[in-house]
Design a protein that fits this description.
The chain has 61 residues and is α+β, with helices and mostly antiparallel strands. The longest helix is centred in the last third of the chain and has 22 residues.
Length: 61
């Protein structure tokens, strides 16, 4: 079974929260496991990006 990770800081990350993707058309067997990002992880990454962008724009002028 394949694992589909999320990207965290540009690197593949295997999350604790996963969902199993099954093949519905024929056998119903598990095809892949997909990592999921929770809202806290998304918020932390977004805040890091916006802070970095804001800091970089302060030096642009």
């Amino acid at each position: 079974m394949r694992h589909i990770p999320i990207l965290r800081g540009g690197e593949p990350y295997t999350s604790v929260e996963t969902t199993t993707l099954v093949h519905h058309a024929t056998t119903g067997e598990a095809v892949a496991e997909v990592s999921q990002a929770n809202s806290g992880m998304v918020r932390a990454i977004f805040c890091t990006w916006t802070t970095a962008c804001w800091n970089a724009s302060a030096f642009a002028n």
